[in-house]
Amino acid sequence: MIIEYPTQEEINASISDVTCKAYPKRENVFLFLWKLYRRVGFMDVMHGMEKIMLFLSAAYILGTGLLMNSEVGLNINIYLLIMMSSPLAFQMLLGLFLIEGVEQRTYEIEMSCQYTTYHLLILRMGTAGLFFVMVNGIFFTCYGLSLNTGIAAALQMAFLSVSMFLLYFALYVWLLLKTVSLQAQLVLYLFWLLGGGFIRFVLPDAFEYMTVGFPLLIHVAIWAAMLIFIAKKIPDFIYTNCRYNLNLE
What are the residues whose beta carbons fall under 8 Å from the beta carbon of 222, sequence distance 6 or more? Predict the structure, then answer.
């Protein structure tokens, strides 16, 4: 008896058909995150860290302001300090989230839930990112105005701080696609500091143009590019680490 086996093309078509029926299509990532936020809620997302976020922002503003007005800050370069400090509080807050999970030994429990620690990390990144963008923009605008250098210089400082923050945010999202370890995040910030120092002291002309010479429209273009990059990479992170299409409605 001759048994007719399906061809490879037929096998591939059957596999594709089963996969399409078994796995729902990706929904819009922003719609998914909005639904996730509505279901989880702000308090569970922050897990008691909202007070620490406010404390970090206050300490960041106070510490950065004092350093910039000190002799050390004036010798280093105020714009280099802006580059170095803009992502600092953001990175510290997300690092504290990871430390908290390790110390309380809740990682395994969170990973067994419908919404895992990776889902919460995305929401925490967005919440902290939006918050610290506003903190950086308002703080450096006010600081620039306090120097009596004019509104243009104040806006230059504010726009630079937001650009540096969003660039770091994009690098952070890229890192998460590789690893979420705290050590890797510390290395990322270390390289950020070294990179800023390298440009400042090895390429001073390029550094001056980047920090002082960029028109504000260039900064807006940087914001748009970084936000597009982040929006494209976050779905990859969700589907790589969260696997939410396997256990959600």
Answer: 163, 166, 167
List C-alpha distances in Å: 5 to 13, 15, 18: 14, 15, 18
Distance CA 13, CA 1 (A): 26
Phi, psi angles (nearest 5°) of residue 87: -90, 5
Instruction: Give the C-alpha separation, 61 to 55, whole Å.
Output: 10
**What token pair was written down for 204?**
């001073």
**What local confidence, expressed as pLDDT, does residue 110 receive?**
64
Whether the full predicted model's pTM is greater than 0.85, yes or no, is no
Cα 51 versus chain centre, distance: 20
Name which of 246, 244, 247 is nearest 33 in CA terms. Answer: 244
- Diameter of the chain measured on Cα atoms: 94
Roughly how many angstroms between the first and final C-alpha of the chain, as a whole number? 46
Q: Is 234 within 8 Å of 170 (Cβ atoms)?
A: no
Between CA 159 and CA 186 the distance in angstroms is 25
The 8-class DSSP code of residue 5 comes to P
Q: What is the pLDDT of residue 225?
A: 94
Tokens representing 235? 């779905």
Average pLDDT of 197-215? 87
